[in-house]
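Notes to self after the call with IL:
- keep both proteins in one doc
- input above output, always
- annotate only the second one for now

Protein 1:
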Amino acid sequence: MKKAFLVLFFTAAGSILYAQNIATINNNPISCKEFLWVYKKNHVGETSLNQKDLAAYLELYINFKLKVAEAKALGLDTDETYKQEIAGYEEALKAQKKFSVDAAEYAYLMNEYREGVLMFNLCEQKIWGKAQDDENKLRTFYLNNAKNYQDKPFEEVRGQVVGDYQEQLEANWVDSLRSKYKIKINQAELKKMAKN
């Protein structure tokens, strides 16, 4: 009887905890509060939340979180230069005295900065550096997609080719991350968030 009660208790507790998360990546939660804070920060002036827009933004946010998870898996968060950059930003934020160190917004800002720097550093390796440094692959991409450039010479459209190549590299990389990491979206919370 005790076992049945404990199983029921932990199942209910797990459901309540999951219900407060909009999604999980490899069982690492993305809280509704965090997601809503980021959404509102990037959609200033919007007064209503609709489910379609929230779902689309959640997909983008999950892509961001996947890159952060990969950066951490590669140990980029243990790099001393990274740690120093984060410490410098934290000191600057504290010096502004706009936010209480105990406030939720302070925690969200620090987390956003930490994760943004990790994502930037990894994108530099995986996308931007590759597109700039490998002239042969860039030219091959140009030749394979020449119709997109109206047969203009490579030198004339190089900037556009670099941008398009970076988009392809990123799309392929995100697809591989989505295969590597287990993603679970809490549709019920998404609907509830849209109603508020």
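Protein 2 (the one to annotate):
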Amino acid sequence: MKRSLSLSALGVAAVVSLAGCGAGAESQPGTSGSSSSSTSQESAAHNDADVMFAQMMIPHHQQAVEMSDIVLAKEGISPEVMDLATRIKDAQAPEIETMTGWLEAWGEPMAMDGGMEGHSMGGMDSMEGMLSEDQMAELESAEADDAARMFLETMTAHHEGAVAMAQEEIENGENPDAIALAEAIVAAQEAEIEEMQDLLAGL
């Protein structure tokens, strides 16, 4: 399980790295089969699904990073849970930067505006798995095993929401980099859901 998770994490990192390279394609030498100009145009191609994916996944990821930071600041948490929280933070923080860069390159706002209200994409019409302010406060005040259990339970639901949003992007998106990142999110977070279920069973 550890090895497969590490490979998944590496996959996500690779996609993020490739996505970052895509954003800077104009400065790269032409690749075989296409010019740097056509590569740039392909990277910029996007539809409403791509925009919504980035606009919704950014705050979703931000909360996951915040949840991980809360747990990492606590004492009495098992090394396995601490390691998981570290890996989640290390994977999702760079993805936030990547998606922010896409929205900037596309000339799209960082948050959804009135122009997107008419669009619905099933699982993406709300950010599934997001914790309320009360739940975040409860996680903040919990200690030791109680904190670990709440983190694992809520992060499992959080991951399930991210997977649903990513699957919607895979089905409806246009931008190749965004679709590739969505596929990596599904693979990595489904593996982490299995890991969290195993950790919960051991508490």
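Annotation: The mean pLDDT is 81. The longest helix spans residues 144-172.
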